[in-house]
């Protein structure tokens, strides 16, 4: 009996060691992960006159990253993620326009807190539902926030928005130039911090629990996992990150309108994830860059029918690259790796 217990204890200890080794290996930073950041730095020097556009790409990458956290890892499908983007955008916009609070860094914290609170309140109720019901409720949330802003146009500015916003120099030192160089570096720095925060979450035991919920929510309930609490937690975190992205959008554009709550905004960020690959940290980067560049190209090619080109690319991506652009690179890597072994 004692020998049997000793064997069982040794087996459990070995299993724990293997699990710990696996988590540490997943968490280790790989050399290939430097490529997106090197590309972002290279863009700063290669296209110095397109920094405003570059800033928007980085903002949308952060927005897509926040959606990937709940969709790609927790399996929460939403059509109203623009609600939190809009809350963050209007938090800094109203603070600057109505209260004269134009310090950019503190504005980001305020936007994150405001969007996080909205995410927590709505998530607590909405995440009790799944499937089509959840889709409609999240969409309705964004619409309600948009119509509330329209109803109180005396505060929000209605669909005319809040134009001509002024923000203090970054850290009181760095002025904003015409081509947006300061804003680009500012957004890139914030994105680095947010990304590594999300990366830590994804590779933590909490992140593994989210993956388990995505794969089989009934099994997670069966083993006693606090599913609802974990979903609300990650929903709140994702809302706060989307709020930061919205705040950066307002700061870099110096205006905000109620269009930030549009369904188009929620659909756009989902398309970005599909193009880049859901459930992959860098899928948000690739998808945002591909989508924004294509949108810019097609809109110049045909200002009226540019969405046809985006739609065609989405159809082709779903048919031939269901795992997104990153999935294609992963398949190529596996192919060459197997050939090298053989």
Structure in words:
The chain is mostly helical. It has a domain at 33-262. It has 15 helices and no strands. Helix 3 (51-71) packs antiparallel against helix 11 (227-253) and helix 5 packs antiparallel against helix 11 (227-253). The longest helix has 27 residues, at 227-253.
Count all strands and give the number. 0
Shape, principal axes of CA atoms: globular
- What Rg do the Cα atoms give? 22 Å
Question: How large is the share of residues in beta strands?
Answer: under 5%
Short description:
The protein is mainly alpha-helical and about 350 residues long. It contains 15 helices and no strands. The radius of gyration is 22 Å and the shape is globular.
Q: What would the keywords be for this entry?
A:
single chain; 342 residues; mainly alpha
List the helices and strands and how they pair.
Elements: H1 2-27, H2 34-46, H3 51-71, H4 82-99, H5 104-126, H6 131-151, H7 153-156, H8 181-202, H9 205-215, H10 217-222, H11 227-253, H12 263-276, H13 283-301, H14 306-320, H15 324-341
Helix pairs in contact: 3-8, 3-11, 3-12, 3-13, 4-5, 4-6, 4-11, 5-11, 9-11, 12-13, 12-15, 13-14
């Amino acid at each position: 009996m004692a020998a049997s217990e000793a064997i069982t204890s040794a087996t459990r200890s070995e299993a724990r060691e293997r699990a710990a080794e696996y988590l540490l290996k997943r968490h280790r930073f790989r050399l290939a992960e430097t490529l997106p950041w090197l590309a972002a730095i290279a863009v700063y020097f290669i296209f110095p006159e397109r920094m405003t556009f570059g800033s928007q790409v980085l903002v949308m990458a952060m927005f897509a990253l926040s959606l990937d956290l709940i969709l790609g890892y927790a399996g929460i499908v939403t059509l109203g993620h623009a609600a939190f983007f809009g809350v963050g955008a209007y938090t800094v916009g109203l603070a600057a326009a109505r209260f004269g609070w134009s310090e950019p860094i503190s504005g980001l914290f305020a936007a994150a807190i405001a969007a996080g609170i909205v995410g927590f309140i709505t998530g607590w109720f909405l995440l009790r539902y799944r499937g089509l019901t959840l889709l409609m409720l999240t969409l309705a949330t964004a619409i309600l926030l948009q119509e509330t802003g329209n109803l109180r146009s005396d505060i929000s500015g209605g669909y005319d928005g809040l134009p001509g916003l002024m923000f203090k120099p970054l850290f009181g030192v760095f002025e904003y130039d015409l081509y947006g160089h300061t804003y680009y570096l500012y957004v890139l720095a914030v994105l680095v911090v947010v990304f590594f925060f999300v990366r830590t979450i994804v590779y933590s035991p909490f992140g593994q629990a989210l993956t388990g919920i995505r794969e089989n929510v009934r099994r997670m309930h069966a083993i006693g996992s606090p599913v609802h609490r974990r979903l609300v937690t990650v929903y709140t975190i994702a809302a706060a990150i989307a709020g930061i992205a919205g705040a950066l959008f307002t700061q870099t554009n110096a205006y905000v309108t109620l269009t930030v709550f549009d369904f188009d905004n929620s659909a756009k960020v989902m398309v970005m994830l599909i193009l880049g690959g859901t459930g992959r940290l860098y899928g948000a980067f690739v998808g945002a860059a591909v989508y924004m560049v294509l949108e810019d190209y097609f809109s110049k090619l045909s200002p009226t029918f540019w969405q046809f080109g985006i739609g065609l690319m989405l159809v082709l991506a779903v048919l031939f690259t269901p795992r997104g652009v990153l999935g294609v690179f992963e398949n190529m890597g596996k192919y060459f790796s197997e050939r090298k072994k053989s």
